[in-house]
Write a structure and sequence with these properties.
globular; 5 helices; about 20% helix; 6 strands; two-stranded antiparallel ribbon; alpha+beta; four-stranded mixed beta sheet
Length: about 140
């Protein structure tokens, strides 16, 4: 699927962004599965809207260390980072894909490592949020 922005990584069968992110062009709310997603991936991948085409999670961008076991659909967490014009700051967000994913040992280690150098906002599956890490050390 995606080219991984020259990281050699691809989406493969992962559809985490298709269920977590809001897509205005499709009138799809956040945390709601897209009507176009199926077990084999996006059914309209070649003609998907620009919001979908332009999105690359941190794993796909190569900013999350590790092998394919850290791909969002396998890890249970999708990471994103973007510049917020509202706050004039870069935000790093971890979206929990299934209940309890943040508590898994591999995820907890990865979150602790990331939180050493930046603030990470955790978006829990149940809709709650928590912030970990040190905002003063934000690097992304």
């Amino acid at each position: 699927m995606s080219d991984g922005l020259h990281t050699g990584r691809t989406c493969g069968e992962c559809t985490a962004c298709c269920t977590v992110l809001a897509v205005v062009e499709l009138h799809k709310p956040a945390r709601w599965a897209c009507d176009h997603v199926a077990c084999s991936g996006c059914q309209t991948y070649e003609t998907r809207p620009s919001a979908c085409r332009d999105f690359h999670c941190l794993w796909l961008r190569g900013a999350v260390a590790g092998d394919e076991s850290h791909r969002p659909d396998k890890l249970g967490v999708m990471f994103d980072s973007f510049f917020s014009t509202a706050t004039n700051e870069t935000r790093c967000i971890a979206f929990e894909l299934w209940n309890g994913a943040f508590d898994e040992p591999a995820v907890a280690r990865l979150l602790a490592e990331m939180a050493e150098s930046r603030e990470v906002q955790l978006s829990y599956r149940n809709g709650t949020w928590q912030t970990i890490g040190d905002k003063r050390n934000a690097l992304l």
